[in-house]
Amino acid sequence: MAVCPRSNRSLGVGIPPVPAMLEAGIRLCLGTDSLASTPSLELIDDAVALHREFPSMEPAVIVRMATLGGAEALGFSNLGAIAPGKSAALAFAPSDRPPRDPLEFLVSGDARPARVAA
Questions:
Q1: By Cβ atoms counted within 10 A, which residue in 49, 60, 114, 115 is the most buried?
Q2: Which of 109, 38, 37, 103 is nearest to 66 (CA)?
Q3: Cβ–Cβ < 8 Å for 105, 70
């Protein structure tokens, strides 16, 4: 199931109970929906929105939803993780100083990932 928090908020339909859904074993991915309901298609902005909605959710869970969760939902077994045999499309998020927790940094709102040129 795809979760699109910015779109849900914009449309006024409410944010799904993501922690309860995960606890129930529902496989989730993070999405952006469309430009009809969000100002951008920046997935990182939806990761930040989800973290702000559920601040006690582990950042690793949100990052997984945005990476491996999306690849699994679309049936792309060769994407979504840095592992032998997987295709790579890497990004980096520069910071003024090394972040204490890189995953927390990614969902903080301060990270602006940029694709690494192949």
A1: 49
A2: 103
A3: no
- Quick one: average pLDDT of 6-32? 95
Cα 38 to Cα 105: distance, rounded to the nearest angstrom: 23
* pLDDT, averaged across the chain: 93
- Cα separations (Å) of 2 from 38, 65, 82, 98, 106? 15, 9, 22, 31, 19
Would you place residue 85 in the very low, low, confident or very high pLDDT band (cuts 50, 70, 90)?
confident
Among residues of the chain, what percentage have pLDDT more than 70? 99
Quick one: pLDDT at residue 1? 93
- Sign (positive or negative) of CA dihedral 74, 47, 45, 104: negative
Determine how β-strand 114-115 pairs with β-strand 91-92.
antiparallel
| CB proximity list for 111: less than 8 A, separation 6 or greater | 44, 93, 95, 105
